[in-house]
Write a structure and sequence with these properties.
Elements (H helix, E strand, L loop, with lengths): L9 H10 L5 E4 L6 H8 L5 E10 L5 E7 L6 H8 L5 E3 L2 H8 L19 E6 L10 E3 L6 E5 L1 H10 L5 E3 L5
Parallel strand pairs: 2-6, 3-5, 5-8
Antiparallel strand pairs: 1-7, 2-3, 2-4, 6-7
Length: 174
């Protein structure tokens, strides 16, 4: 079986969340490809919808999955300094996104790390996702036709279960 065929999808993600006793709720909506397209469907949620970027270090070719509040002002040059990227950051190709995280453009999500068994991707979280600024955090569940909400503790538990150690950055300090 090829690596791409073994990726966890939405059903596997939700099954894992249940097995790991991480409570979540799901909002079904039409496919969306940008935060702006998603907001009409999730704008009245009690929590924060995430902006997720899959990025590549220009020189060392390191990969980063960056997650922040949807309304965060993200400047790639500033983020590059925060994560110590050589030569700056740029968006990684969709083929790499599919290979490493089992995702496609428009469905980038923190939950993709469930497929990063080799730990090729550094997870970068805005500190507001871990310091209880928000009571609930919302991400796509491997597809862009739904949104799933978890608590900050649920997110931390998920990340630990996926055996990742996130890099926490403070975008507000920039």
């Amino acid at each position: 079986m090829a690596e791409g065929d073994s990726h966890v999808g939405r059903e596997g993600l939700e099954q894992s969340l249940k097995e790991w006793e991480i409570s979540f709720d799901a909002i079904e909506h039409p496919e969306v490809f940008t935060v702006e397209q998603a907001l009409p469907h999730v704008g009245d949620i009690d929590g924060m919808f995430a902006k997720n970027l899959f990025l590549k270090d220009k020189k060392k070719k390191r990969l980063f999955l960056f997650c922040a509040p949807h309304d965060a002002d993200v400047k790639l040059n500033d983020l590059s300094k925060l994560v110590g990227a050589s030569g700056g950051l740029r968006f990684a190709d969709e083929s790499i996104l599919k290979e490493k995280l089992g995702l496609t453009q428009g469905s980038v999500t923190v939950f993709g790390i469930i497929n990063d068994k080799k730990k090729d991707v550094t997870l970068v979280l805005d500190k507001r996702f871990t310091d209880n600024t928000y009571n609930k955090l919302y991400f796509h569940p491997m597809v862009n036709s739904a949104t799933v909400g978890v608590t900050p503790d649920g997110l931390k538990s998920f990340i630990a279960r996926c055996d990742h150690e996130p890099l926490i950055v403070d975008l507000l300090s920039q």
